[in-house]
Amino acid sequence: MAGLTSTLEIARRTLLNEQILIQTASHNIANAENKTYARQKVTLTTNAPERVPSGWMGTGASIDRIVQVRDQYIERQLMTSTAQESDFRTRVSFLELIGTYLKDDGETGISQDLGEFWDAWGTLSTNPDGIVARQGVISAAERLAGTLKTANSDLSALKEKIQSQTGDTVTKINTLLNRIADYNNSISGIEYNGRQANDLRDLRYKAIADLSELAGITYGEESDGSITVSLKDGATSVTLVSNEKAGSLSFSQSTGLVSYKDADGNDIAPDPNDLSGGSLAGLLASAQKTTDFSNRIDTLAGELIEQVNDRYDSTHVQTVFDGSSAADIAVNSAFRTPGNIIADYASDIADLEDTELADLDDSRFVDYLGAVQQQIGLDQEDAASRADFQQALAEYLETQRQSVSGVSVDEEMIDLLQFQQVYQAAAKVVNTTRELLDTVIGMVG
């Protein structure tokens, strides 16, 4: 009887084991299209044998644990590559906008208006009393001033847009940091006794993946199953998540800088920000690029105002332009009346077209503007090239990750057939053992 009872218990455990194996395979198949899911695997362990007169008798197998199949090295590399791609894609998108606002194809743009401005003065120098020539100078000056002012306005609006997106991105980052800390708390609470919080780990992985698109973070797993998340700003390393504690980021539109509160509540304010990876780094870099190109257009406008006014009237009693930069350049109100125009120095002003100026990097106006255009193109090309490389690398790493952690429906179906056969065999053992027990009971009766 004892032997038959033990056999029945082994078969019962086998049925329960196979139910868990089938359920796990079903769970894997249900998540086959989930890119952040890691395939789960049931591990079995042999039960301790029992001592019998003839030796040791096996007692079957039990479920040891259900584990995830992961390669954390590949996953960390993937997060880094994803962060870099997001950084450079963000830069590309805003550099494209800067290029659009400062577009100059020879028919439209600042250089076209600048050329027409010099030509108008040249025409006036050959016909100083001509009303049409005087009106041409006025129109060309107003058109050029308007184009410069529009460029400045567009770049200022773009910077405001970037800062608004930076604030939104910081809010999203803080939400994810708190979410990861909450997952840490839940996971460590479940895994303290050796159990695995697999599905919570998948949710946490998804949060880390989302965070890596926003910020260039690094992370590592602790012995209790929680992860520590850090961010590097220049030479400063900031711990943003530690166990169940989360830090936060703050963005100041007035300074354009991001500051931090680490997981222990300490305030950290690197100045200036030096981030790499994630759309946050791309936004901060794009804001700086926008400022740089806006400053260069201001330099060009300021030099134009100063040089033209100096040649028109060195005493500056009468001026062509008011203002000092692209933000406030305007045609002087008195200059707008053709009869008030002084044509004596029209030739000198026209000669500015070919004059190399120290404040314009020892170049002509048109060459300085061309250098600005060229730099925009080079920056955009460099960012796009880096983004494409990181995208290709991320796709390769994701393929590697899926080869380890992804679900193969074909493999799961094969496993299901095997589990089914084992289940049926265990059920057969139960039936056979029951019949034997009935026979034994009948004999005793």
Distance between the termini: 14 Å
| Class computed from helices, strands and strand pairing | alpha+beta
Main sheet specs: 4 strands, antiparallel
Series of secondary-structure elements, N-terminal to C-terminal: HEEEEHHHHEEEEEEEHEEHHH
Give the strand order, joined by hyphens, for the main sheet. Answer: 5-6-7-8
Question: Average pLDDT across residues?
Answer: 93
- Please compute the radius of gyration using only Cα atoms: 37 Å
Low-pLDDT runs: none
The quaternary organization reads as: single chain
Give the % helix: 55-70%
Q: Looking at the structure, what is the overall shape?
A: rod-shaped
How would you characterize this protein structure?
The protein is an alpha+beta fold. Helix content is 61%, strand content 13%. The protein has helices at 2-30, 72-101, 110-126, 131-191, 198-214, 278-312, 346-350, 365-405, 409-444; strands at 40-46, 50-52, 55-57, 61-68, 217-221, 227-233, 236-242, 245-246, 248-252, 257-261, 267-268, 321-322, 330-331. The protein has a 4-stranded antiparallel β-sheet. Strands 9-10-11 form a 3-stranded antiparallel β-sheet. Helix 2 runs antiparallel to helix 4 (131-191), helix 2 (72-101) runs parallel beside helix 5 and helix 6 packs antiparallel against helix 8 (365-405). The radius of gyration is 37 Å and the shape is rod-shaped. The chain starts with a helix and ends with a helix. The mean pLDDT is 93.
